[in-house]
Amino acid sequence: METNQQEPIKRSEFLRSLGLSSAALMAFYCMGTLTSCSKGSDDPDPTPTPTGKVDFTIDLNSSTYADLKDATKKFVYKDDVLIAQIKNGTYVALAKICTHEGNLVTYRPTVDNFYCPNHGSEYDSTGKVTVPVVANQASLKKYSTTLTGTSLRVFEA
Ligand code: FES
Questions:
Q1: DSSP 34
Q2: pLDDT per position as a tens digit, 61-76
Q3: Which keywords has UniProt assigned to this entry (predicted)?
Q4: From the CA of 123, how far away is ligand 1's center (Å)?
Q5: How far is the CA of 114 from the centre of ligand 1 (A)?
Q6: How many CB atoms sit inside 10 A of residue 53's CB?
Q7: Class for domain 59-155, per CATH?
Q8: In ligand 1, which atom is closest to the CA atom of 121?
Q9: Quick count: other Cβ atoms within 10 Å of Cβ 116?
């Protein structure tokens, strides 16, 4: 008795029936979902998750942070944080990513504010948006700072 049911065919048999070589078959396998071609441990993660709270200390005398003493800049980046020495001499640490579309925020010593050159958002030293470019634009996260000698600790309270 003959049935209309067809035997399921394995993917490899199907691909071989197309006349593909072993190398081409491996390429197909690697493009698929087989675990034998899974990512290695040192492949970069395209969406890394934050590893923890911000808590680091910088040496203000280090040449790495010399821009903090440059009168035309007065700010540096460390990890995801912008650190600035504002007009009154205190150090302020804010998230460095603009809350509009993610551009890098800078500090402008001439007008003593934080500015995103991409579309012109401005923030004060608390991270509050003073010139938004969209309604309900979020503030920049502010971090705590403590200065001990020439060591500046930046941390989440
Ligand atoms: S990305 Fe900063 S103002 Fe648009």
A1: -
A2: 999 999 999 999 999 9
A3: 2Fe-2S, Iron, Iron-sulfur, Metal-binding
A4: 11
A5: 12
A6: 9
A7: mainly beta
A8: 3
A9: 23
